[in-house]
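Why should sequence recovery work at all? Because a backbone constrains its sequence more than one might expect. Tight turns favour small or flexible residues, buried strands favour hydrophobic ones, and helices have their own preferences. The token representation captures these environments compactly. In the example below, the structure is given first.
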């Protein structure tokens, strides 16, 4: 994502055109999106204490893509801020992968312990189990069982209503989070522009020849990272399909990914639609647009595999 951020650090000073302003704003929003991207999944894993829902293959391939971008940033000798952000993304990927591996290890060990305990319970003498069931024939036990079933129905209905309320709150939180990221990105652009940190990059600047010298190596790494980003989603899509579930995935994580890719592509197209400029940025455009299509598939899976109340839940 380091090359994705390159346009976000192109300043906008002096007389601005609408095209330059939009390019800078979209680039800054994209930058803010990438910074906050992994936080929702980290928080969800921490709250639930598990990470079975996310594909490790997805994360590892994504890490390869970020490492490729970091290498490209160093090769192209981009500004230190871009290199630092590329390193940040690699570090964030590493933290998320480490968290997932930790929770998977802990939960697998607990599952083995539970299996051993279950085996020990099955080997208990039958007399012990009979004694525990002696109360089934006592007067009033039938009424207690009936009331328990009735209570179970009420509990199930209450649970369904609580889940619906939680879904509504989750969508509200996601919406507010996205609006917050947009506000942070736009404010960051305004501050950088007013302070002179950003300067508009002319389409026919004097450094064009120098840029063309590094374009080949950057383009190779760009296509490599695009392939990684496109391929990373496939294991997650396959896992969701096999499990028929998206449980354990943070929807906001994929919403931010969609917004980050959309705003990055918009920042490129707003800056220039000249053929040479588009060809130079083609790898990252392909990676962004392709990833958006795959994220759309995951959104469909969220909808298809969302938990729905059925008859057995209220019987």
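From this structural description, the recovered sequence reads:
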């Amino acid at each position: 994502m380091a090359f994705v951020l390159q346009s976000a650090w192109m300043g906008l000073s002096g007389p601005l055109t609408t095209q330059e302003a939009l390019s800078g704003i979209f680039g800054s929003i994209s930058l803010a999106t990438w910074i906050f991207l992994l936080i929702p999944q980290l928080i969800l894993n921490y709250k639930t204490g598990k990470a079975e829902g996310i594909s490790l293959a997805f994360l590892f391939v994504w890490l390869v893509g970020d490492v490729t971008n970091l290498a490209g940033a160093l090769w192209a000798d981009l500004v230190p801020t871009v290199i630092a952000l590329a390193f940040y993304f690699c570090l964030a990927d590493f933290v998320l992968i480490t968290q997932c591996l930790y929770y998977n290890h802990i939960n697998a060990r607990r599952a083995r312990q539970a299996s051993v305990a279950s085996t020990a319970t099955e080997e208990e003498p039958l007399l012990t189990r009979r004694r525990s069931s002696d109360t089934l024939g006592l007067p009033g036990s039938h009424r207690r069982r009936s009331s328990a079933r009735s209570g179970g129905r009420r509990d199930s209905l209450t649970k369904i209503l609580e889940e619906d309320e939680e879904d509504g709150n989750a969508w509200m939180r996601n919406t507010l989070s996205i609006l917050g990221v947009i506000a942070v990105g736009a404010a960051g652009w305004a501050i950088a522009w007013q302070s002179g940190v950003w300067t508009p990059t002319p389409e026919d600047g004097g450094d064009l020849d120098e840029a063309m010298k590094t374009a080949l190596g950057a383009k190779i790494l760009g296509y490599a990272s695009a392939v990684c980003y496109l391929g990373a989603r496939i294991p997650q899509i396959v896992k969701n399909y096999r499990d028929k579930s998206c449980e354990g995935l943070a929807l906001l994580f994929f919403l931010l990914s969609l917004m980050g890719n959309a705003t990055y592509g918009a920042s490129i197209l707003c800056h220039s639609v000249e053929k040479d400029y588009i060809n130079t940025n083609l790898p990252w455009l392909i990676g962004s647009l392709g990833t958006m299509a795959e994220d759309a598939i995951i959104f469909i899976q969220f909808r298809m595999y969302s938990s729905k109340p059925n008859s057995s839940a209220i019987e």
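A few observations help interpret the result. The first helix runs from residue 2 to 6.
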